[in-house]
Each structure stands twice: as C-alpha cells, then as structure tokens.
Amino acid sequence: MKAAVFYDKNNIRYEERPMPTIGEGEVLLRMEVCGLCGTDIHKVLDETVPETTVLGHEVAGTIVEIGQGVEEFVVGDRVFVAHHVPCFTCHYCQRKLFTLCKQFKETNLEPGGFSEYIRVPALHVKHTMGKLPENVTFEEGALVEPVACCLHGFESMDIRPGDSVLILGAGQIGCLQIQIARHLLAGQIFVSDINPYRLEQSLHFGATAVMNSKTENLQEKVMEWTAGQGVDHVIISAGVSALLTEAMNCVRKGGTILVFAPFREEEIAIPAHRFFMDELKVIGSYSSHPYNYETALQLIQQGVIRVNDMVTHRFPLAQLDEAIHCAHSPNEQALKVLLVP
C-alpha cells in the first residue's frame, strides 16, 4: 500500500509501506478521506515527530477486513475513527479528565491517517469508531474528530444563551467554534484574524462581527462592540502565545478564557491581578474523548456544522506536501483541506 511519510519538513515521501495485518478485535480500514489538521502542519513544520512517521488522524473510511470477535461492524461498513483512547479507570479518567490519561497518548492508529489502509486496534474499534449514517458522506465523517475536539473545549465553558464570545483565529477550528457557539445560543460572536478570506468566511458561518488584528486594535474594538464591558468568553484558536495577554485584556469580569491552540514554550506577560480582582478563569483544552463523538456526528448529520461549506481544497495522498503548503500559506483562500487516496 502507499502512504505519505514524514522525513523532515522539506521531505515528505509518497512511498510503499507493508499492508497492516490485523488481530483479534481489530479491523482493517481503507481510508476514503483524511482531514489535514493544524497539529499535523505544526508537527511537520516544527519537525516534532520522528522520521518515517505517518501523520493524519481525522479519518473516515470503509472496513475491508474484520478480526475475530468483532461483532458490531462488518466488511463494507462506512465509519469514522479517532486516534486516542483513555483507560477509563485511572486517576484522571475517574475525574472525567480523559485526555490527561497516560494511555491516551500511547494509543494510535497504524500507521496513521495519511495512508491507503489503516489497522484500527481493538480499543479504537470499541471506543472511538462509529458507523456513518447513509446521509453522512465520508468528507463529513472526516470532520467528526475535529468537531469532537471543539466540543471537548466547550465542555469547560459555561456558555449561556445571550453570552458574548470572542474567537481569536478564524481557521478551520475557529469556523467550527463559531457554528457550535451559535448552536449554543451565544448572543454575539466576534472573530479576530489577519486573513481577510477567513474573516469573510467567519461571517458566512454566523459571526456577528469580525476584525483584522493586523490593521485594528483588538482591545479597542472589543470594548467598542461590548460598550466597554468585554466579552464573556474568549477562545484562543491560533497558536500565538501573545494572544493570552490580548484575551485577558478583552474578557469581562467573571469571564472565561479557553486556550484551545498549542503555544510554544515561552514566557509572556499577563495582567495577573485580574485573576483575583475579576475572578477570571483560564482553562486549556487538548484533543477529544470518546464521549464527544456521538454528539459531533449528530451536529454534522443535522446540519449544525456545515461541512460542505468548509471544505475548500482536496488533494490526493501523493500531494501531502502541497496540501500542507496550501493550508499554511496566508496567500491561499484555504479553510478545510482534505486528503483522499
């Protein structure tokens, strides 16, 4: 079989790999669509994964072989599958902090989503794989995992009808978060980015107002929008550490800041007095967990998440490097980029 294999940021090879063999409780999946995630781009460009890694984890495909003991699925089933599984019994899992579980990061698909065929381990078959309804396409199925990640972040925020939300970053994740915030009856949804195309798309997906932070002052604009009060919730969906300072200057008293995107390991200055005086909450969100997937699938199936409007580019698996360049380039009108065999 063929796979797109990482060697370094300038060397992604489309090469032959051995066909995975499956064991008891496992399935062999033919990849039909795999989404390109911002973390995939980060791992390639910052070279944070070992050579010969096959990335990709937003997977939808067709089951072509089932192992002994698999009863809920049959050959030919159309499915989505996610890549990490918690143990459900450790200190963190008992407190519903599933993504902090030690086993969580140790589990994965083999070899990864950017390959023609994928071995789905038994734990994943049991906990992170689900059938796609007839009216859900493979492209929509590939969005189950990223939507689930957004839902995991929203679990930590008490968004009430009428609340105001500021989303920093209007990429694929920011546009998903706009749609979820609208579904949760947020009163005002403001979006900041430096890409005019993505700001235009934010309005299309339901943002109340947008601003280009390259040409406008974020704090001044937010205070103008909110009559000097600030917003109830800020979601940081771009991996820029300085946005935490910006967020703390824009959130109102008693508000919440969700750090959704990964930051580099660097020190930044923040107005720390606000924690005590204004009772602010700053929380982080990493990945998704098995209890998010059914909700994510329902949001897609019912049209709350408009996947077809989000997909801007499709690349064959042999062109993963071009797909990454497209998704990362500020000159491209790119939102959601998909890979197909």
Automatic annotation (TrEMBL):
Its cofactor is Zn(2+). PROSITE patterns: ADH_ZINC. SUPFAM superfamilies: GroES-like, NAD(P)-binding Rossmann-fold domains. SMART domains: PKS_ER (SM00829). Keywords: Metal-binding, Oxidoreductase, Zinc. Coiled coil: none annotated. Residues 9-305 form the Enoyl reductase (ER) domain. It comes from the Bacteria. This is Alcohol dehydrogenase. It comes from Lysinibacillus piscis.
